[in-house]
Each structure stands twice: as C-alpha cells, then as structure tokens.
Automatic annotation (TrEMBL):
This is endopeptidase La. Residues 187-334 form the Lon proteolytic domain. It catalyses: Hydrolysis of proteins in presence of ATP. The active site is at S231, K276. It comes from Holzapfeliella floricola DSM 23037 = JCM 16512.
Amino acid sequence: MRRRWTVIIALLIIALGVFLNYPTSYYLEVPGSAEDVAKFVKVDNKTVKNNQFYLTTVGIKKATNLSLFLSRFQSHVTAVSSEELTGGVSDEQYLKVQQFFMQNSQNAAIVNAYKKTNTSYDQKYLGVNVLQVDERSHFVQSLKSGDVITGIDGRHFGQTSDLIQYVSSLDENQQIKLEVKRSDKTIELSGKTMKLQATGKVGIGVSLVDETQLITDPKAKIDAGSIGGPSAGLMFSLGVYQQLTQEDLTHGRKIAGTGTIDTDGNVGAIGGIDKKVVAASDAGAQVFFAPEATGENDMTNYELAKKTAEEMNLSMKIVPVKTFDDALNYLKSTV
C-alpha cells in the first residue's frame, strides 16, 4: 500500500513539474544586455579610440506556466502575448520586419554622422519594401513580405511619401498596377485600392519601409548580427561619428542609450526602456540617453527611464534627447 502511494506521489510530482515547465503562448520581456557599439561599427581606415558607447537590448524569453506566474511579482518583467509581440504575423515574417527596420536604422545612423562631419555620401531611393499586407487588401494573395514596390501605374517615385501621396489621390476601389521586384525578377501585379481603417484615406493596405542604397566615402559598415529592430539608431550614429572624427567623446565614461533615428537626426521612442535602463546599469554605465518622445503608458521614454532609475536608486545619469545634436552637445559639454 505504501509503495502504491509512493508511486502516485512521484507521478503527481512529475506531472506538476511538466505542467509548471510547459511553454505557454506568452513571452517575457526582460532586461537584456549592453553591447559595445565598436563591435558592430566599422569605418574604413579609421581606428576606435576609447570607444565606450553601448547600445542596450530587451531580452525575449518564451514563458512557461511557472515563469508566467512568477512574472506578476517581478520588477521590469513584462508578459506579452505572441500577437502583441509580433503584431499577429508569423515568427519568420516578424524577424524579417525587424531586419528591415534594423537596416533602415543603420543607414539613417550613418547618414547622420556623415552629414554632421561633412563627409561624402549618397543615398539612392530604390522603392519601398513590403513588410505586411492587410488581410482586407486586394493584394493580400499576390504581394509578399520582402517584395519591393518600384512603381505604380508606370510612375516611379523619389521617396515613399510621394508614392503614398499618389495612391491617396486615387478613388477607392480604383484598379492599379504595381511594378514589383521579387528577388532578382520584376513582376507586375494588378489590384484595387481600398480605404484604410486607420486614416480613412485611400491606400493599398500594406505596411511599407524605404528600400535604399547607401554609398559612402570612406566606406562605413554596421553589422548588428542577431540584434533586430531600429532602437539602436542613436548609439550607432554616435559610434560612426566618433570613428569619423577620432574625437574622444566619452572621456573614460561608459555611455549607454537607446532611441530610433531618422535621416534628419530626430530621435524616436522605443519600447521596454525600463529594461534597458537595468541592462545599462548592470554594465556599469554612468550616462544613459533616453528619447524625449512619448512611449509606453503615455509617458516619454525619458520620464519612464528616470522613474526607473529613481526607484532603483541608481547613480547613472538619465539624459533626455530629442535629436542627435542633443546627445552630441551633451557629450562635448560634459566631462
């Protein structure tokens, strides 16, 4: 009888262990890492001098039943559904979108640094990358993620905003022809325009990002490896700038930060900044650049970053930035 109960208890313990460690459909966003920008940025014939710029990341973990339950009691750990994380697209498509965003972010980072140092560069507009197609779009069966739209109705455009402006001038359900580059082939797709729910304007129902070719002299390359998304733009730009000028901007300080960047030098909001503050502090950063743009919970990234630092009683200084120049001016005016 005792042996029977021993077996039953053992089986219950095993079943409980399996249940607790069984993966859920949720993910956990946790503090990631602070990575030396110099590992990713290279400008030909330039050396890195005292480069101590750090980009910061948010870690993503698949949640088990146990870790999902424990996350309710943990600081700076956020549970998100698969749909919230990926926007409802497949994992493969999500990764592809993140790679597109990262490539655009890298190009914008390089452009900013080259502009600021009056260094030669040329950015050619090639078309728009298709990231995602609305299920209500007339092109949902024909357009694919990764396609590049190079023209519409025989017209070619100098920038994405011109393409969007042209389509929005058309009538709803108007027949159009798209010129599309798919891998190494050019194809033509026909379909109709639609009214976009988000804006009420006429469109084709796709999420787009610029497809550009950047030519620089000297050549600059950013290889972010497995890091995706656009949030390292500001820190990449500072890294490229420092290599071009050979200036010592850090003066021995560890400078961490985050923020998207566009070709005009504007720094945009990102997600998970509280987790990035933790990652930067754990790496020993003395300064953290935070976008002064609205992010989560109707707070600016800077406000949430500062709140996180105060709650954790960190000595790391949180510095608000709206532009690339804000970050540069801070570095040059402080030691």
